[in-house]
Amino acid sequence: QAVVDFERLSEHAAAFQGHDVGFCCLGTTRAKAGADGFVRVDRDYVAQAAELARAGGCKHFVLQSSQGANAQSSFLYLRVKGEVENLVQAVGFDRCTILRPAVLLCKRQESRPMEWVTQQFLGAVARVCPTAYSVPVETVARAMVACVLQPGEEKVKVLENKAIHELGKA
């Protein structure tokens, strides 16, 4: 494990060398970081980490993005997620897997009241439609590992929420 300063990420290039696979789940919220901070973390840091990983020999990059990611979206969150997907694909990994989970179900240490209400509602909906609107973070983590262990011919593979559920229980 290496601790890096994302504001000076290029100074930590050695931490990205010698890895066959890279996993990226980096992200923040607009409420926590402001609009500029959100873009810096969710797009710029991720793209720079992908570039350093590729330069360090990474062959397969696995990116957690978001359901609805679209570089043309008028919503900042979805636009930035779509932009970073495009930037990571352009790095030129042998394989790139992008996971687009719906609302992540997890326990957080910080207080996010609206997210908590949403998770309670979606947790109930998940009992009826388990793959429609949410996914437990543990399922996403298992899917990320499973996609690396499976042979793949596709240079870029995008997994939507239902596919994440299926792969995460395999």
UniProtKB/TrEMBL annotation:
<feature type="domain" description="NAD(P)-binding">
    <location>
        <begin position="4"/>
        <end position="151"/>
    </location>
</feature>
<protein>
    <recommendedName>
        <fullName>Protein HTATIP2</fullName>
    </recommendedName>
</protein>
<dbReference type="InterPro" id="IPR036291">
    <property type="entry name" value="NAD(P)-bd_dom_sf"/>
</dbReference>
<dbReference type="Pfam" id="PF13460">
    <property type="entry name" value="NAD_binding_10"/>
</dbReference>
<comment type="subunit">
    <text>Monomer. Forms homodimers during oxidative stress. Interacts (via N-terminus) with elongation factor EEF1A1 (via middle-region); the interaction is direct and competes with EEF1A1 binding to guanyl-nucleotide exchange factor EEF1B2, thereby inhibiting GDP for GTP exchange and reactivation of EEF1A1. Interacts with nuclear transport receptors XPO4, IPO5/RANBP5, IPO7, IPO9 and KPNB1 as well as GCN1L1/GCN1 and LRPPRC probably through their HEAT repeats. Binds NCOA5/CIA.</text>
</comment>
<dbReference type="InterPro" id="IPR016040">
    <property type="entry name" value="NAD(P)-bd_dom"/>
</dbReference>
<dbReference type="GO" id="GO:0005737">
    <property type="term" value="C:cytoplasm"/>
</dbReference>
<dbReference type="GO" id="GO:0051170">
    <property type="term" value="P:import into nucleus"/>
</dbReference>
<dbReference type="GO" id="GO:0003824">
    <property type="term" value="F:catalytic activity"/>
</dbReference>
